[in-house]
Design goal:
The protein is an alpha/beta fold. It folds into 2 domains: 6-15 and 259-378, Alpha-Beta Complex (Aspartate Aminotransferase, domain 1); 18-257, Type I PLP-dependent aspartate aminotransferase-like (Major domain) (Aspartate Aminotransferase, domain 2). Helix content is 35%, strand content 12%. It has 13 helices and 12 strands. The chain has helices at residues 18-28, 39-59, 72-79, 104-107, 130-138, 162-171, 191-194, 244-256, 261-279, 306-315, 335-339, 344-347, 361-378; strands at residues 6-7, 66-69, 95-99, 117-120, 145-148, 175-179, 198-202, 213-217, 284-285, 296-300, 318-319, 351-354. The strands form 3 sheets. A 7-stranded mixed sheet has the order 2-8-7-6-5-3-4, sandwiched between helices. Strands 9-10-12 form a 3-stranded antiparallel sheet. α6 links the parallel β5 and β6. α1 packs antiparallel against α8 (244-256) and α5 (130-138) packs parallel to α6 (162-171). The mean pLDDT is 94. It binds pyridoxal-5'-phosphate. Pyridoxal-5'-phosphate is lined by residues 71-73, 103, 105, 150, 154, 179, 181-182, 202, 213.
Length: 387
Amino acid sequence: MSAPRCYLDYNATTPLRPGARAAMVAVLEATGNPSSIHAEGRAARRVVEQARAQVAALVGAAADAIVFTAGATEGAALALSPTLAGPTAPRGVRRLLVCATEHAAVRHGHRFAEADVTVLPVDRHGVLRLDALASALADDGGSPALLALQAANNETGVLQPTRVAAQLVHAAGGLLVCDAVQMAGRMPFGLEESGADVALLSSHKIGGPQGVGAVALAPGVVLGAALVRGGGQERGARSGTENVAGIAGFGAATLESRDSESDRLAALQHRLEHGLAALDAEASVFGGAVARLPNTTAFAVPGMAAETLLIALDLAGLAVSSGSACASGKVARSHVLDAMGVPAILAQGALRLSTGWASTAADIDRFLTAFDVARRRMRKGPLPIAA
Ligand code: PLP
């Protein structure tokens, strides 16, 4: 009998938390459109509003400042618009500044013309260069700009200085949209603390179902033109009958996403990174010198191709990722490592491990053993003697 799979790819997606599953099953067993007046409809509406309050509590937003979407990609498409307005930019914004390491969902720029999008560099650790932000804000006569800056990177886990960036952007009459997909629910993240005007959230990164997310708005922030128009659901910001089961699962997952889990995940990260260093002194952790998510380790060993390692690990029952997952299932060059100036020869060996609510120390040990076997095979060295 083959050993159970060992899943270490939580930044791609997470296993469904038991509470999220239970909340979804309860909805699937009922019938009701939240817009209907009858008892069934009112019950569905209660489910949606309860989840709205739960998601709002996760990021310190008001419940009526949450707009449910079909995920963070749609959230980005909704928020990244010249019509987004807020206390520091009451008439909207003219241009978009994006950090070079943003997820494709954000880098796309959405409702900004390509000519109005400026990509801002990061330093070699993957942290936004605030000097570049300050000079970009002064460009174009200092016209109001929207900055898209993620809270934490999905490939390296590197945290961004959102609060300082927000101060600069606000002082220049602009706004900040923060992709908090990888941070909210894993570490404390609040709209106020981050300085963000808008936070993008995704359910499936915190143990909820796929295909549901939210946009959270700070006080006084107004989304401009809706993207999906129709029946006027979500106060007109996102029409279409709500994904009630998905929303219920998202809400329940927030309850189970304890901030205190960051200590447990940090201990696993420590175990992994010390284990790696002991196995191979040449293993380098990307972003290892700066603040990172406690669940993410991206590393490479010179001379080892990620694709080969990934396949060997998969055959050994382990699910890890090489850099960023891509839609085609092919391993593409990482724009994040490129932006950090990682040499291509090292970047092509980048592996990412990301842990979460069901990960254990045994998973880490199993990875280290399998990795050691794979790397010895690749280096054609002797195999370890089985205990
Ligand atoms: N932003 C980041 C940092 C992500 O990691 C992802 C998902 O991979 C997204 C946005 C897109 O989220 P969703 O899958 O909900 O569209």
